[in-house]
Amino acid sequence: MTETGADESVSNGPARPPPEFPAATEPASGAGPAAPPRDLLRLGKVAAQVARDEIVPLLGRARPERKEDGSLRTPVDEAAQRRLLEELALGWPEIPVLGEESPRYQQEAVLNGDGPYWCLDPLDGTSNFVAGLPFYGVSVALVDHMGPRMGVVHDPVRQETFGAVRGGGAWLDDTPLSPSASGPVPPLHQAMALVDFKRLPPALAARVAVEHPFRSQRNLGSSALEWCWVAAGRCHLYLHGSQSFWDWAAGWLILTEAGGAAYLEEGLGSGDGRDSPRPGLDGLAVTAAASPSLLAEVRRWLGTVSLP
């Protein structure tokens, strides 16, 4: 997602007052009517520069530590979050940040405050990154009282930036994004699924493994990018047993604005969820698909699974 003629540095120049977020009807200068808004382009540029400067040079070289929830954290995660905080403050001052690497009390304070805030995962796919697997990204979403309003996910390996604005559409770089751009979304038995088996309820994981109701299955290891790959039609279905807010905030917006659909709930198959999930710090199970009809089909299949 690039802005023609833009200065390569995002750090220079005076800070400007907070703009109206996002400029959904204000495309980049000289761009066609389907171009991303200027603020979305700028946000994508911030994510790309942070990834290029703080993350990419240390692929496979960072020493991890294990957090209380069992996930990995490295000095790269922390450095990338600090840099994002700096860049976001320069471009959009006075907007608070809820970051994955922030202390819980700070996350709660931002979540319970007034006005919009940023929700970010500075390095999504840390386990991949530590192992040297080239599938990880940077995820940033602007959130207001209605949920995610603008978001980007940058893939520094493939140099791709996915972005969306609520009510304004989704893009891959400068191209409008649609799961059906390369062909119709298939039915469940022909779908390519992304499944995180580790976090599925055991009964469901066993039945998925035995019945495999889809054509084939993968697990790529970066929640934010997996949302985007469904939005791009590279995969068609996504099952995940528990995601944090920063895992799904930008990706959910990108998928739904691209024409896909998702249902988030406290436990996969519990039926207690929402099509438009509320922000929070508790994990949510994800059922997402490249089309509303495929989502309905997989949810019907889930409804036949006996869960404890």
Set out the fold topology:
Blueprint: H1 38-55, E1 65-66, E2 72-73, H2 75-91, E3 97-99, H3 104-111, E4 117-124, H4 126-131, E5 137-144, E6 147-155, E7 160-165, E8 169-172, E9 175-176, E10 192-196, H5 202-211, E11 216-218, H6 223-231, E12 237-243, H7 245-258, E13 261-265, E14 284-289, H8 292-302
Parallel strand pairs: 3-4, 10-11, 10-12
Antiparallel strand pairs: 1-2, 4-5, 5-6, 6-7, 7-8, 8-9, 12-14, 13-14
Helix pairs in contact: 1-2, 6-7
Q: What are its keywords?
A:
308 residues, alpha+beta, Fructose-1,6-Bisphosphatase, Chain A, domain 1, D-Maltodextrin-Binding Protein, domain 2, seven-stranded mixed beta sheet, disordered N terminus
In short:
The chain has 308 residues and is α+β, with helices and mostly antiparallel strands.
Which residues form runs of ≥5 with pLDDT under 50?
2-25, 29-33
Distance between the ends: 45 Å
Fourth CATH level, the homologous superfamily of the largest domain: Fructose-1,6-Bisphosphatase, subunit A, domain 1
Whole-angstrom Rg: 19 Å
Form type = globular
Topology pattern, helix = H, strand = E: HEEHEHEHEEEEEEHEHEHEEH
CATH topology assignment of the largest domain: Fructose-1,6-Bisphosphatase, Chain A, domain 1
The computed structural class is alpha+beta
Text of the CATH class of the largest domain = Alpha Beta
Largest sheet: 7 strands, mixed
Helix content: 25-40%
Instruction: Please tally the β strands and state the result.
Output: 14
Q: Averaged pLDDT, please?
A: 88
**How many domains comprise the coordinates?**
2
